[in-house]
From TrEMBL:
PROSITE patterns: SPASE_I_3. It comes from the Bacteria. It catalyses: Cleavage of hydrophobic, N-terminal signal or leader sequences from secreted and periplasmic proteins. This is Signal peptidase I. The keyword rRNA processing does not apply.
Amino acid sequence: MDAGRHADPDRPSLLKGLASFVATIAIALGISWFLMTFVIHSYEVPSGSMETTIITGDKVISEKVSYYFRNVEPGDIVTFDDKEIPGRILLKRCIAVGGQTVDLVDGKVYVDGVALSEPYTHGLPSDPFASTLVDIAYPYTVPEGEIWVMGDNRTNSKDSRYFGSVKEKSVTGRVCLVYWPFGDFGVL
């Protein structure tokens, strides 16, 4: 009788199982990385700058796919890199794109001379800030390749009125869904 043949019959299947487990974890991590880098990302909203459209503490999904096929458009709620704090992502509504002129008159936003209908602001005034990060004079023409963004909660939002227009290449996605808490669930 050959002692080597019957000593450990489970060894090959144990190694196969372990290798299969490690490969499954590696594939799951790879898919997760791919999705978060190129398709979607989840964010928790830390401030009230977009209330009542998006509430402080809401968790949202930002999708990246549509901007592979089209540019940012006015009305899109976008995520973008913060100009002041590297690594921080902000979310605001795009009001105007490169080449358009923004003006703030008597608490209203005008784009290319036309007052915007903005029911999502609930009548809050859109006034210029007294103190800004950059020098902004109105009317302001948005440079090509940049966008003008504002929070829906106009009296509680540091936005383009404070930090100026945002480079379109700094946009990381379009907010499309509030998924938590469930009571706030909805497509944007």
